[in-house]
């Protein structure tokens, strides 16, 4: 064997070792979720029986259907707002160089750095005064505002670098209004970056805990993360149930990721290197 | 229609376009600006006001206390503990994620078997909620029946009480956070590596440059944009860490692994000390703003030099 092929083999083995190390938490989650309560065998071993009782019991007791519904409504609602109003806001910021537009653009960039949680106290106060605590709407609006700066940043970068101005100019000569030009001509061309925004924001909003724990305290509006944390509190002695619930809560995003892997990864690296 | 009229019409339309172009089209970003004003900018300034009061977070009234909350902030030993932890979570995770992520990217950029599979597996935790990740690591680190101690006992060693050790806990949080998000750093580096043209390496080969020289003089300088993005993303993520602390250690034992975010949460919701919580929020904003802007400027400058 030449040193080159030997090297290749060593590197392949290294890659496999990394894979094994990184799969461990998922493996432990699986073995724990499939074991009956009171089975104290090592977490490294799968049980020698097969039962889904943890899953059915966790589904019922944690009221996961309710949690899935709430999480789904909030994720979709916020993502739709982000795509419509984020792309619309990015268009003039990318195209029209005026002092006002530059100021607004830098305002969004600066806000990207501020942790939304830092304003927790006054924000909570505001939400209570508006009577919007424990509503889907407030979770949607909070996530919308929180991810707007990043969305606008991604859209404006894409418009600036890849959408030819000539198209819009031609449409304008034909007498089309700004709204028509934007939604008929520009928006369809933004599809790749819209996919990016959709993917990034869905992951983070689906998994959001910080906003949800503050503003969705009533169990009828609990999202998956809030449901899980209170379910964990009630079942500290029965981690197998918690594991089953955690697995079910993570599954939709994992399946989506495995199906759309290419778009996910292209999405997350898009703009980041250029930007 | 003769040519002259057409020309006139065209130029009229063109001047109309110019006029339109000069307007800022501000109404297009009006909804977005309204949203961030209401949910981010207004609360931020309202928060500044609250720092001058002893508001408990629930009553209709509160007293003006001047700079008392700020005096408390700087004399509270817990402030320094949570600031220290927050910096450790931010800077520690950033250094680890950047180094490990780069090594992974260099390895998985080569033509080896299983590279696609390995990338997928390293990336997978990014998709899972940090809260859930914290629970899973608790299954591993737990003193009783934890997966780690099963291995430790296999070797006949004493069980490790990893989560009960106050000086170890913040480091465990750093490790878990790094494990979860190293995939993002790796992907950003991979995108950077793939944008470097092969010609550079071919030319360097002809000139007889060693692999290390090529890495130092070609790869690193051309990776600078990816490095900048990684530094800023990892810093912001680590400095505002919340979910994984709640689920893995609950900020404990005692307050040992508390971050500024979790501390603020307990001040507000458990101790009804809203005025002080808001003051901690202001400090947190300034720390994050300062560190991320300083590092952004520093690395952007390096990019220009490279």
From TrEMBL, chain A:
Residues 68-260 form the ABC transmembrane type-1 domain. The chain crosses the membrane at residues 9-30, 72-91, 103-126, 138-160, 181-206, 239-260. Its main location: membrane. It is a multi-pass membrane protein. The keyword Cell membrane applies. It is found in: Cell membrane. This is Maltose ABC transporter permease. It comes from Salipaludibacillus neizhouensis. The lineage of its organism: Bacteria, Bacillati, Bacillota, Bacilli, Bacillales.
UniProtKB/TrEMBL annotation, chain B:
SUPFAM superfamilies: MetI-like. It comes from the Bacteria. GO terms for biological process: transmembrane transport. The chain crosses the membrane at residues 25-45, 87-108, 120-143, 171-191, 222-242, 274-299. The keyword Membrane applies. InterPro entries: ABC_transporter_permease, MetI-like, MetI-like_sf. Keywords: Cell membrane, Membrane, Transmembrane, Transmembrane helix, Transport. It is found in: Cell membrane. One of its GO terms (cellular component) is plasma membrane. The keyword Lipid biosynthesis does not apply. Residues 83-295 form the ABC transmembrane type-1 domain. It is a multi-pass membrane protein. Signal peptide: none annotated. Belongs to the binding-protein-dependent transport system permease family. This is Glycerol-3-phosphate ABC transporter permease. It comes from Salipaludibacillus neizhouensis.
């Amino acid at each position: 064997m030449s040193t080159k092929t030997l090297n290749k083999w060593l590197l392949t083995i290294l890659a496999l070792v990394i894979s094994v190390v990184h799969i461990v938490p998922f493996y432990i989650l699986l073995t724990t979720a499939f074991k009956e309560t009171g089975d104290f065998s090592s977490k490294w071993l799968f049980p020698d029986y097969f039962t889904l009782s943890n899953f059915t019991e966790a589904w019922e007791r944690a009221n996961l259907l309710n949690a899935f519904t709430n999480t789904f409504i909030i994720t979709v609602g916020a993502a739709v707002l982000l795509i419509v109003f984020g792309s619309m806001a990015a268009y003039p910021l990318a195209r029209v160089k005026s002092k006002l537009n530059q100021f607004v653009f830098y305002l969004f960039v600066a806000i990207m750095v501020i942790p939304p949680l830092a304003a927790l106290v006054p924000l909570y106060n505001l939400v209570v005064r508006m009577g919007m605590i424990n509503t889907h709407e407030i979770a949607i609006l909070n996530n919308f505002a929180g991810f707007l700066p990043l969305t606008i940043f991604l859209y404006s970068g894409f418009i600036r670098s890849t959408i030819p101005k000539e198209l819009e100019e031609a449409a304008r000569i034909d007498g089309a209004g700004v709204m028509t030009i934007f939604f008929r001509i520009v928006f369809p061309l933004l599809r790749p970056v819209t996919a990016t925004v959709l993917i990034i924001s869905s992951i983070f909003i689906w998994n959001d805990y910080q906003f949800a724990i503050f503003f969705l305290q009533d169990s009828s509006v609990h999202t998956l993360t809030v449901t899980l944390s209170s379910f964990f509190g009630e079942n500290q002695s029965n981690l197998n149930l918690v594991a089953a619930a955690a697995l079910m809560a993570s599954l939709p995003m994992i399946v989506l990721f495995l199906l759309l892997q290419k778009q996910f990864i292209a999405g997350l690296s898009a703009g980041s290197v250029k930007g | 229609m003769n040519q002259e009229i057409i020309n006139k019409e065209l130029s009229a339309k063109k001047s109309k376009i110019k006029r339109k172009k000069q307007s800022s089209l501000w109404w297009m970003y009006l909804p977005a600006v309204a949203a961030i004003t209401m949910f981010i900018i207004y609360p931020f300034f309202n928060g500044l006001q609250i720092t001058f009061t002893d508001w408990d977070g629930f009553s209709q009234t509160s007293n003006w206390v001047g700079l008392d909350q700020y005096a408390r902030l700087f004399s509270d030993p817990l402030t320094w503990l949570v600031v220290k932890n927050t910096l450790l979570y931010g800077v520690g995770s950033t250094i680890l994620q950047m180094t490990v992520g780069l090594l992974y990217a260099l390895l998985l950029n080569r033509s080896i078997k299983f590279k696609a599979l390995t990338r997928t597996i390293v990336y997978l935790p990014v998709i899972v909620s940090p809260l859930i990740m914290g629970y899973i690591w608790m299954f591993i680190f737990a003193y009783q029946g934890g997966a780690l101690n099963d291995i430790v006992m296999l070797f006949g060693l004493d069980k490790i009480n990893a989560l009960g050790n106050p000086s170890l806990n913040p480091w465990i949080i750093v490790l878990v956070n790094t494990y979860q998000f190293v995939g993002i750093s790796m992907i950003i580096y991979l995108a950077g590596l793939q944008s470097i043209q092969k010609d550079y390496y071919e030319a360097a080969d002809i000139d007889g440059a060693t692999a290390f020289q090529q890495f130092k003089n070609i790869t690193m300088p051309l990776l600078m944009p990816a490095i900048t993005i990684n530094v800023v993303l990892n810093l912001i993520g680590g400095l505002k860490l919340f979910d994984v602390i709640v689920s893995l250690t609950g900020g404990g034992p005692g307050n040992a692994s508390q971050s500024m975010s979790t501390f603020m949460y307990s001040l507000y919701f458990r101790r009804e000390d809203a005025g002080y919580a808001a003051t901690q929020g202001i400090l947190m904003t300034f720390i994050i703003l300062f560190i991320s802007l300083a590092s952004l400027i520093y690395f952007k400058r390096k990019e220009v030099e490279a």
